[in-house]
């Protein structure tokens, strides 16, 4: 399977705990994006990487959120001290450097209780 | 401010008929437009796209029309099939902004047999 892979698919955590999600992009894709989707809304941009460089962060990404893409391959998104408002679907997408189509993974559904 | 809007939250259509989904945008910097299809608990699946230098793009049963002066695009699905029942998202991107996607709120399509 050469698509975008996200793990875990589901995560239930208690408020205040830290969580980390992983995204493995399509191997030849230089760009990797994180989005968040809440019920009834379209996905919202969080951050993106070009190779290992994080080029933009949305103001939605509070200081409790951090993303990394070491070596320009897979990426992790960590949320510290989770809050109930963090409950959402976290989506990862990748694209070629000059590409305009981004391809999404299955997402990680986070529930904070 | 919502830069991409899908004003119809839902659409019901008979199998075999045409489905028309609409999308409006406000940001003149957008130079690429995409449609994604999403099933529950899955990531968005890329359907079709169009560059701002074109006014029409066709792929099988799917056609996207772009009216740049009106900042409006539409997706036509003909003939509609029951498997087309899903939520459809319109998205826009700008090359100057790293091609990050700005999504509309989605239109839920139900195709009745």
Provide key terms for this protein.
A: 113 residues; mainly beta; 11 strands; B: six-stranded mixed sheet; globular
Brief synopsis:
The complex is a heterodimer of chains A (113) and B (113). Chain A is mainly beta and 113 residues long.
Describe how the helices and strands are arranged.
The complex is a heterodimer of chains A (113) and B (113).
Chain A: E1 5-7, E2 10-13, E3 19-24, E4 31-37, E5 44-50, E6 53-57, E7 65-68, E8 75-79, E9 88-95, E10 103-104, E11 108-112
Parallel strand pairs in A: 2-11
Antiparallel strand pairs in A: 1-3, 3-8, 4-5, 4-9, 5-6, 7-8, 9-10, 9-11
Chain B: E1 4-5, E2 10-14, E3 19-25, E4 32-38, E5 45-51, E6 56-59, E7 62-67, E8 72-77, E9 86-93, E10 102-103, E11 107-112
Parallel strand pairs in B: 2-11
Antiparallel strand pairs in B: 1-3, 3-8, 4-5, 4-9, 6-7, 7-8, 9-10, 9-11
Biggest sheet details of chain B = 6 strands, mixed
- Give unreliable regions of chain A as ranges: none
Taking the alpha carbons of the first and last residues of chain B, their distance comes to: 38 Å
> What count of helical segments of chain A does DSSP give?
0
Q: How many DSSP-defined strands of chain B?
A: 11
Mean pLDDT of chain A: 94
Radius of gyration of chain A: 13 Å
Notes on the protein architecture:
The complex is a heterodimer of chains A (113) and B (113). Chain A has strands at 5-7, 10-13, 19-24, 31-37, 44-50, 53-57, 65-68, 75-79, 88-95, 103-104, 108-112. Chain A is an all-beta fold. In chain A, the strands form two sheets. In chain A, strands 2, 4, 5, 6, 9, 10 and 11 form a seven-stranded mixed β-sheet that branches. Chain A starts with a strand and ends with a strand. The mean pLDDT of chain A is 94. Chain B is mostly beta strands and 113 residues long. In chain B, strands 2, 4, 5, 9, 10 and 11 form a six-stranded mixed β-sheet that branches. Chain B has a five-stranded antiparallel β-sheet with strand order 1-3-8-7-6, with no helix packed on it. In chain B, a hairpin with a 6-residue loop joins strand 4 (32-38) and strand 5. The model of chain B has no long low-confidence stretch (mean pLDDT 95). The A-B interface holds A 4, 6, 31, 33, 35, 40-45, 48, 50, 55-56, 91, 93, 95, 99-107, 109 and B 4, 6, 32, 34, 36, 41-46, 49, 51, 89, 91, 93, 95, 97-106.
């Amino acid at each position: 399977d050469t698509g975008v892979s996200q793990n875990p698919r589901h995560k239930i955590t208690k408020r205040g705990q830290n969580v980390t999600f992983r995204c493995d992009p399509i191997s030849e894709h230089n760009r990797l994006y994180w989005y968040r989707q809440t019920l009834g809304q379209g996905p919202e941009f969080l951050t993106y990487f070009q190779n290992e460089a994080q080029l933009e962060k949305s103001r939605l990404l509070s200081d409790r959120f951090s993303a990394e893409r070491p070596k320009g391959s897979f990426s992790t998104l960590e949320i510290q001290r989770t809050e109930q408002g963090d409950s959402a679907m976290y989506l990862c997408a990748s694209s070629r450097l000059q590409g305009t189509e981004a391809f999404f993974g299955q997402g990680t559904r986070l529930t904070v209780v | 401010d919502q830069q991409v809007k899908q004003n119809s939250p839902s659409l019901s259509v008979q199998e075999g008929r045409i489905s028309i989904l609409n999308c409006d945008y406000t940001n003149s910097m957008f130079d690429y437009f995409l449609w994604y299809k999403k099933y529950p608990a899955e990531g968005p699946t890329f359907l079709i796209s169009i560059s701002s230098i074109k006014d029409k793009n066709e792929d099988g049963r799917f056609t996207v029309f772009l009216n740049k002066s009106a900042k409006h695009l539409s997706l036509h699905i003909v003939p509609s099939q029951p498997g087309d029942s899903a939520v459809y998202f319109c998205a826009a991107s700008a090359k100057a902004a790293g091609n990050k996607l700005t999504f509309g709120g989605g239109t839920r399509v139900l195709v009745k047999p």
